[in-house]
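pasting for the record
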Amino acid sequence: GSILTGGAGSQVVNVKNSKIEGGAILIAGTGNNTVSIDSSIIDNRGSSTANPYPSLRAGDNAISAAGAQTTLDVNDSKLYGNINISDVAQSMLTMVNSAVHGGININQGIVSLDATTVDDAITAKNGGTLSLGTRTSTFSNKFSGFDTLEINGSTVLSGGLTDAQVGNRLEVNGDGVLT
C-alpha cells in the first residue's frame, strides 16, 4: 500500500514502527508539509507499474513530495527507492541511523545525514547545504548542486571533488575532517 495525501493547506504524515511494502509516501500539499518516519521500512520495489501515480511506480520513489516547503525527518529506518522532493520550493531533510537504497533529489534546502547510508547520488537542483553529522555517513560520493558542504565528523571522499560536484562554487565548513 501507499500513503497519499494532498490538497490545500499543510500536510502532516507520521509513520512509526511500520512497514509499507509495494508502495510509497506521496505528499502534494500547497502549504508546509511535514513527514516523520521512525523505526520503519518504506519499500517501493513491489509496486505496480500500472500505478496511476508515476512517482509511485516500481523502482522509483519511496517518498515524493510537492508543495511550498517540506520537512522530512527519518530516524532508524530503511527506504527502498528514492527520496524525491525536487518539486518542493524549500526542503529540510534530516536522516539519522538510516539507509536509502536509492538517491536523494531536492530542489533547494538542507540535507543532513548522520550515521546514514545513501546508495545513489544526492542532488540539489538549485543549491543548498549537504551536512554530514559527527557519526560516519556513507554515500556514493556522488553529490551535486549544493552550495555548501558542512562536515561535522570525519569524512572521506574517494577521488576528491569533481567539477560537477562543486559547480560554480562550493563552500566547505564545519569542525570535522575531510580527507
